[in-house]
């Protein structure tokens, strides 16, 4: 019995849709060039911290393509998320249909990016420390 080779789906993007690293090499999609004009930094406060609420919250965060990152933080809020949307109307709908329905959320504070000044996934490596 022969097995089908596994096929990995990939999205082909035109070169102009990719940002370039400091060497000029394509590194990752440019969100604006693929139609995601809004980036929001979202601070949430939560009233529920039990295992069930946390698991459901995490499931929603992990399955929503709009969330790029989620961090449990210190300070005024409990969580800091990075989310993207096509435009302000799309972000408004996302707040209504997704953010406001997250379990235990008592406060949502969105800060919209006006201009991305630096974005990198490259980590600094200092000789002798690793």
TrEMBL record:
Pfam families for this protein: AsnC_trans_reg
Residue intervals of the Transcription regulator AsnC/Lrp ligand binding domain: 42-116
Spans annotated as Disordered: 1-31
GO biological process: response to amino acid
GO cellular component terms listed in the entry, alphabetical order: cytosol
Single GO term (MF): sequence-specific DNA binding
The protein, known as: AsnC family transcriptional regulator
Source organism: Limimaricola cinnabarinus
């Amino acid at each position: 019995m022969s097995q089908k080779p596994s096929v990995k789906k990939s999205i082909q993007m035109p070169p102009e849709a990719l940002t370039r690293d400091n060497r000029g090499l394509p590194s990752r999609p440019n969100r604006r060039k693929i139609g995601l004009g809004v980036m929001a930094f979202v601070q949430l406060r939560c009233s529920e911290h039990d295992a069930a609420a946390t698991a459901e919250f995490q499931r929603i965060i992990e399955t929503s393509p709009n969330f790029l990152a989620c961090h449990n933080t210190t300070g005024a809020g409990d969580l800091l998320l990075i989310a993207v949307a096509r435009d302000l109307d799309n972000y408004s709908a996302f707040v209504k249909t997704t953010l406001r329905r997250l379990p235990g959320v008592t406060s949502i504070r969105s800060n919209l990016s006006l201009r991305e000044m630096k974005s990198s996934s490259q980590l600094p490596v200092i000789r002798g420390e690793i």
